[in-house]
Amino acid sequence: MRILKKEVGIFSLTGLYDTWVDPEGKKISTCTIITTDPNSLMADIHNRMPVM
């Protein structure tokens, strides 16, 4: 499933990104998207949605 905005403009999601070094010296990059309860438009599709 693909969800689009009617407007063509850019929109943003809230997330976290980090790069760290594990105990063996390997560089690791990680990321996550912050989610919240769905609004009325998304509730029928899923029980979470990205924070925008």
Blueprint (SSEs and pairs):
Blueprint: E1 15-21, E2 27-33, E3 35-36, E4 49-50
Antiparallel strand pairs: 1-2, 3-4
**Which regions are unreliable across 5 or more consecutive residues at pLDDT < 50?**
none
The averaged pLDDT comes out at: 90
Radius of gyration: 16 Å
Structural class comes to mainly beta
Number of strands: 4
Helix content bin: under 10%
Distance between the termini: 18 Å
Gross morphology is elongated
Which terms would index this structure?
about 50 residues; elongated; two-stranded antiparallel sheet; two-stranded antiparallel ribbon; mainly beta
Summarize the structure.
The protein has 52 residues and is mainly β.
Description:
- With 52 residues, this protein is mainly beta.
- The protein has a domain at 15-50.
- The protein contains no helices and 4 strands.
- It has strands spanning 15-21, 27-33, 35-36, 49-50.
- The strands form 2 sheets. Strands 1-2 form a two-stranded antiparallel sheet. It has a two-stranded antiparallel ribbon with strand order 3-4.
- A hairpin with a 5-residue loop joins strand 1 and strand 2.
- The protein starts with 14 loop residues before the first strand and ends with a strand.
- The mean pLDDT is 90.
